Amino acid sequence: DVDLPESHPRYESLLTRHRIEAGVDRGITSRQGLIAQGRGEAFDYLLGERTIDSADDAERAAAAHLLSADHAVVSVNGNAAALVPGELVELAEVTGADLEVNLFNRTEERIEAIAEYLREHGATDVKGLTADGRIPGLDHERAKVDADGIGAADVVLVPLEDGDRAEALGEMGKTELVIDLNPRSRSAEVATVPIIDNIIRAIPNITEHARDLRGDPDAQQDAIDTFDADSALTAAERTIREGDLE
Ligand code: ATP
Ligand code: MG
Description:
Layout: H1 11-25, H2 31-46, H3 53-68, E1 72-76, H4 78-83, H5 85-95, E2 98-101, H6 108-120, E3 126-127, E4 133-134, H7 140-143, E5 144-145, E6 155-159, H8 163-171, E7 175-179, H9 186-190, E8 193-195, H10 199-213, H11 217-226, H12 229-242
Parallel strand pairs: 1-2, 1-6, 2-3, 6-7, 7-8
Antiparallel strand pairs: 4-5
């Protein structure tokens, strides 16, 4: 792996970069994914590379939605797989959600490589290879999903999703949980629950909230009802513009 002293002030950020590079080398992350990582990193720097309180609330609400769903799916793209493979498998296990590989720049090789990488990290069933469902309103390749996966889901967690697809999924009536460091990204703006946090911190924290909320429908409903998407977006943007206000 990589030889970085944990005491390095930007340890996490360097580790993240290294994982994305390794993802490209393994054929699971696209070259576009490298650029997306750079955009994310800039926002993370401005947020102080930490989970702000409003993001923690969003992560709790997301956990509650996943647990109370009829059919929840965690969507996995090349960046998500490179950064948090084991953590995604664990989240799916704790919440009972399906894992589905879902790529903006879709190739069969990359889908298979990501599915295999998730299996190496303990996943038993990975969706995304059937691709017999379509998201209405998108061109052919971008529209593909599994009919019994994202196609049938009432709740989807989409990390780092493209704006058009996030919008189209929302129009299908799905509850969308979006992880995106940019509070002005269209994906964040159309989300039922926008999570303005680094996926590296967000996924384990959603899992921790899910462990806490599991078996308690009243607490789940409360986390869902008390979360306000507009306030969360505003709080994140204010933190970026004005620094540490929380
Ligand atoms: P649009 O407004 O159409 O959505 P975009 O610039 O957001 O355009 P995307 O491909 O959706 O294009 O960009 C990926 C998003 O993922 C960016 O908003 C970026 O900030 C975010 N991102 C990148 N890396 C991470 C990460 N590690 N954790 C969370 N979000 C990330
Ligand atoms: Mg976006």
